[in-house]
Structures are given as C-alpha cells and as structure tokens.
C-alpha cells in the first residue's frame, strides 16, 4: 500500500536567542523523519515548508510545537519528492525585507504590526468603510497580474527587498490616513510589511489572517478577491471555488503577445533571463514569440531562430 505523504507550511515569529542551535536541532529532526524542504531560522522566528510521510509530518509538528508553542501548520498535497533536498539555514531574516534591525518580536509575535482580520472581518470593514478602504498588495508585482483584491494598489516591487524603497517614495502617502488592508499569499509577509508601514506613518493598517489562501478558501470567487493565486511551486497558479469555470471567476491575466486571457506564466526563451511572463499556450509554443518583452531577449531569441534554421 502506498503511504500517505503531505507538505506542511508554517511560520512563527518568536524571539530565538540561539538560532544556530535551533537550526541544528531542526535539521536533525527532519533528517531523522526523512522530511525534505526549506526551513529558515532567524532570531525572529522560523519559516518553513517541508514534505514527507504523513506520520513523519505529525511527529514533526509535535516536536516543533514543544519548542515554539502554539503555531499553525497548513497541510497541502505533496511529498518529500517535491523538494530537491533538505535545506535548514540561519538567516538575518525569515523573509528578506532588508530590515532585520527594524523588526521587533516578542513572545506574542511581531510587535507593532497591523491589526489581524479574519476573512469575514475584511468584508465587514469594506461594508462599513466602503471605498475608503485600500487593499495593498504585499507580494511581488508580477503575481498580481493574474489575481488581486478588487481595486488593490500594487506597489512596484520585484522582490521583497523593494518594499522599503516603495513605502518611502512618497507614492503612497495619500493612503496614510486611510484604512489599509495589506495582504499576501499566506500572511507571513504582511506580518512584517504591516509593521514597516506603521513605522512609516500609515496610521490604520490591517493584515489578513492566513492571507489570500484563507480568504479564498472562505469566499471563493464570491468575495473581494479576483482571479487566480500565484503559487511558488510547479502548479504556478491555483483558483478558488469552482475555478475558472466558476461564474464569479474573473480572468485578470492576458498573453503579452496576443492578449488572449491566460493565467499561466512562462519562462523567457532567452535562457539567461529569469523573467516570468504571461503567455497563452499558442504563443508559448512558438519559439519566435516565447520572449518576455525585453529587447535584448528578443535579439537572443531571434539569433537562436537563425541558428536553428541554418
Ligand atoms: Zn498569445
Ligand atoms: Zn527575457
């Protein structure tokens, strides 16, 4: 009989006086349980995704809670095979905002972060405050091309490192007195982002418990979320509710070449380019068209085409 496998996703903000010791313990624990995945540990907490045998996952949760106390683990489909190896590392930050000195954490989590809202409370806030409420996307801008909260502000962010520059640019000062709901995939980024915003004069900042994932599970395509959710695994995107067939589903993404509706990102035909670009299946399967839009990539791809014909 095939054994059941699962993936666990989790994080917890908690002061850790000796991250190295915790890292060594976590590595030993995962090796013993034959779990694979990625775990980051800093003096502010832990952020991990591991996969393996169901029973091993349960044992991992039990042991990890013995040290970290109450924390939430999200179960997802998958196994150890979804990861190339086990990686357990100490970093300055468990999410790389480039602000390790600014983040304050105590036994209750991040100090000075945004107010946590459950998915239903997000809707209630919008019912009460209407258009005054601003949704602020806490992900990389690219992810919002296929899905975001209705009317959300999407900052010009390629990596999490860009947020501080964006927040201090003045572009978003107009929302400093408004209710701002920061959101991200699973909630961890906004734990930090919402604190960084408050430190920079945004007065009324919220974050969504469990992020887009929990909101989408609760409201599907019938709430304030529109489109697909970008995910960092081989699926690339997921939909809520009945998916793209759902009458409430809004397709936000379009092929950069022909405009056909799509929610699938593709790699650029220039193999040195890391850009993910929305392309329909037809354009993606045409080597001449499979480019991200940067002129230098178009040149490389054109040269490849010439080489193939020759
Ligand atoms: Zn196309
Ligand atoms: Zn490119």
From TrEMBL:
Pfam families membership: Rhodanese, Rhodanese_C, UPF0176_N
Alphabetical keyword list: Oxidoreductase, Transferase, tRNA processing
Rhodanese domain span: 129-224
E.C. numbers: 1.14.-.-
Top-level lineage group: Bacteria
InterPro entries: Rhodanese-like_dom (IPR001763), Rhodanese-like_dom_sf (IPR036873), Rhodanese_C (IPR022111), TrhO (IPR020936), TRHO_N (IPR040503)
GO term, biological process aspect, one: tRNA modification
GO terms for MF: oxidoreductase activity, acting on paired donors, with incorporation or reduction of molecular oxygen; transferase activity
Catalytic activity: uridine(34) in tRNA + AH2 + O2 = 5-hydroxyuridine(34) in tRNA + A + H2O
First-level EC class: oxidoreductase
UniProt function note: Catalyzes oxygen-dependent 5-hydroxyuridine (ho5U) modification at position 34 in tRNAs.
Sequence similarity: Belongs to the TrhO family.
Protein name listed in UniProt: tRNA uridine(34) hydroxylase
Source organism (scientific name): Corynebacterium epidermidicanis
Gene: trhO
